[in-house]
Design goal:
By secondary structure, the protein is α/β, with parallel strands linked by helices. It has 2 domains: 216 residues, D-Maltodextrin-Binding Protein, domain 2 (3-Layer(aba) Sandwich), CATH 3.40.190; 186 residues, Periplasmic binding protein-like II (D-Maltodextrin-Binding Protein, domain 2, 3-Layer(aba) Sandwich), CATH 3.40.190. Helices cover 40% and strands 16% of the residues. The chain is globular, with a radius of gyration of 22 Å.
Length: 432
């Protein structure tokens, strides 16, 4: 969930997305009832909305599309890269209108339950799409389930880690990354005073605020009791950690517009020593000035711990099939191929993204990229998010509150109280 961020300029891509969508009158119908066709007999056109970064990730997925079409020449895949920031609402609008939705969507894990609850996704149990479900990690697989049925298949999993510039930390007198919030502040201040760089570059995004909330024992919700906990003392304590990092100068006052891009650029150019980010940024970081000629300078560690624990949100993406698709069998077969262990291993090898299938980690392609193994420890601290229909709507109120705090417009406690009130409007029957 990085990408309120991905600034993929896309007027042309959006126009293509509208003109090349699945479910059009020209699409070829499956040659057998959905889910039961012999793979060799399946034909049709599948439009796939890929929401990955168009520059760093898109080309690798386009190569996989070519492999799929070579294996299944009767199926044509219309590849459309849709900017992540636009995709959630764009898909909802198309699905609601019954026109323009793709056959297959690369969905952020938090979107699936909402789309399924609205009837926009095809159930995948009993279809070729759900292949070897026992080989998926439980949390990514859980993100695709709603009301006892499977509506999406994991593509990749991820979380946030602390990425750091080893050279800048060493100049500041630190041979290892900080393990606690207290150490994070001190290391950042030391970098600023001794290494001539900023300490911690913050991305003002709700998802990136969660490690601080989790670290102090807080959370957004308690799903079991249907209680809104975003304004609990623990959650407030976590946000106060960020507030203090900014006020103390350990983290410079962050940009609000293009926040992710600004923080990421500062880090990979060596102007900031540390950043919270995920495995999706590996390729971009290693191409930056600070690491391009010295990849060993790029450090990856778990997010620091607060008074309660070290915790970071479970992220990732799933493949979902549009319920109104006229190409269901072809879509199921495409998802099966793209979510296979072999394909996930290839993605891991090329991009350093983390497979959702344990078996993929043992394949040569995944083992060849040392970034995959380096994310093992940060992933151990991943916290499962609430897979509820409203889950994808929780971030906007928290983002707006974070922005107010980062600019000094409001303090941590009243910010979270306002977020809690916004959640009450989203979550009918939940208590504070």
């Amino acid at each position: 969930m990085r990408r309120r961020i991905s600034a993929v300029a896309a007027a042309a891509a959006l126009a293509l997305a509208v003109s090349a969508c699945g479910g059009e009158d020209t699409a070829t119908q499956p040659s057998a009832p959905a889910g039961s066709a012999n793979a060799a007999d399946v034909s049709g056109q599948v439009t796939w909305w890929d929401t990955s970064d168009a520059t760093n990730e898109g080309p690798a997925f386009q190569e996989l599309v070519k492999e799929f079409q070579a294996k299944y020449p009767k199926i044509t895949v219309n590849y459309v890269n849709v900017p992540f920031a636009d995709a959630q609402n764009k898909f909802k609008t198309a699905a609601q209108s019954g026109s323009g939705a793709p056959d297959v969507l690369r969905a952020e894990v938090g979107w699936v339950a909402e789309f399924a609850s609205l009837g926009y996704l095809a159930p995948l149990d009993g279809t070729q799409a759900l292949d070897a479900p026992e080989d998926f990690l439980p949390s990514p697989l859980g993100s695709g389930k709603y009301d006892g049925k499977t509506y999406a298949i994991p593509q990749v999993t991820d979380t946030l880690g602390l990425l750091y510039n080893k050279e800048l930390l060493k100049k500041a007198g630190h041979d290892a990354p900080p393990k606690t919030f207290e150490e994070l502040k001190q290391v950042a201040l030391d970098v600023k005073s001794k290494a001539g760089a900023e300490g911690l570059a913050l991305n003002v995004d709700a998802y990136f605020l969660l490690p601080f909330i989790y670290g102090e024992g807080g959370d957004l919700l308690d799903v079991n009791t249907k209680k809104i906990t975003v304004a609990s003392p623990q959650s407030v304590a976590g946000v106060k950690v960020v507030e203090d990092l900014i006020k103390s100068g350990a983290a410079p006052k962050p940009a609000i517009q293009d926040s992710y891009t600004n923080a990421e650029t500062a880090f990979k150019e060596g102007k900031a020593a540390m950043i919270f980010n995920g495995p999706w940024s590996n390729t971009s970081n290693l191409d930056g000035k600070a690491f391009k000629d010295d990849p060993d300078n790029f450090g990856i560690a778990p997010v620091p711990a607060g008074s309660a624990k070290a915790g970071s949100p479970t992220g990732g993406h799933d493949y979902a099939v549009y319920a109104g698709s006229k190409n269901l069998d072809a879509s199921y077969l495409f998802v099966k191929f793209m979510a296979s262990a072999e394909t996930q291993a290839k993605v891991a090898g090329k991009l350093g993204l983390l497979p959702a299938r344990p078996s993929a980690y043992d394949l040569p392609e995944a083992k060849a990229n040392d970034m995959v193994a380096r994310w093992k420890e940060p992933m151990a601290a991943a916290v499962e998010r609430p897979w509820i229909p409203e889950g994808g709507q929780l971030f906007q109120p928290l983002l707006e509150g974070y922005q107010q705090m980062a600019t000094g417009e409001n303090a941590a406690e009243p910010v979270l109280q306002n977020v809690a009130k916004a959640y009450q409007g989203l979550l009918k029957g939940w208590s504070l």
